[in-house]
Amino acid sequence: MDLGRMNTTAGALPRILRGMAGVILDTDGVIIDSARVHAAAWQEAFDTCLRAHPPPDPAQRRPFDVREDYRRYVDGKSRLDGAADFLASRGLDLPPGDPADGPGTDTVRAVAALKERLFTDRLRAHGVDAYPGTVRLLTVLHSAGIPLAAASASRHARELLERAAVLALVDVLVDGVEAARLHLPGKPDPALFLEAARRLGVLPAAAALIEDALAGVEAGRRGGFGLVVGVDRARTPHTRAELLKQGADLVVHDLGELLTEDSPENRR
């Protein structure tokens, strides 16, 4: 770390992050505006599955909700965990399937593969952008020499960060490819974030974790991170309250708020 550079920019650091030895950020919904693309792909995959395999209870045949169902069952999780959790919530007991299963609706792996294909098609057709407030925060932290890591259960994280031109702002990336290689359990287990902290060379208790997913916030609290910041893109009292209940120390709507003097400390 360049201590001279840090000293010249320390005054610009958000008060809430001063004293943190490192900062770890989730990717989808925190750095990259890709959650909506994931949600749309899940919606099409799950609704196709629900039509092919109608749950016995008519009340459970309702379409996938891109806000509530996405946040509760799939946000922040691996594709397989997300697919299994949502299908179970609708009373569907599909077989797990095999790794070679192609896109379809007859197994959990097939539904996950269908979502993957739909997401990839949307990504290649439309791309995604980084949140401007996050870019401003990353730029300040990077200029100050604060070690930064991006973490994601998605295998697309590196491509997303590269396409949004923000990969160079982080020192470490632990994505879904690495998580699979290391056999890291998914959120709310903190393993993904603990690996990111290890690669940064910082103790979790001395690091800040920034997450928008309920499972990710819970993982941060379980991992013993010194500060857990929740990002509430939905901007509702309900979603803010849920993030706080899962263990967020504070909740902001956009990370650019951390660069202002009045926002973070009073949001608990």
UniProtKB/TrEMBL annotation:
InterPro entries, A to Z: Beta-PGM-like, HAD-like_sf, HAD-SF_hydro_IA, HAD_sf, PGP-like_dom2
Superkingdom in the source lineage: Bacteria
Top-tier EC class: hydrolase
Entry-linked SUPFAM superfamilies: HAD-like (SSF56784)
One GO MF term: metal ion binding
Keyword vocabulary terms for this entry: Carbohydrate metabolism, Glycosidase, Hydrolase, Magnesium, Metal-binding
EC code(s) of this entry: 3.2.1.-
Cofactor(s) needed for function: Mg(2+)
Protein family (similarity comment): Belongs to the HAD-like hydrolase superfamily. CbbY/CbbZ/Gph/YieH family.
Name by which UniProt lists this protein: Putative glycosyl hydrolase
Source organism (scientific name): Streptomyces jeddahensis
Lineage of origin: Bacteria, Bacillati, Actinomycetota, Actinomycetes, Kitasatosporales
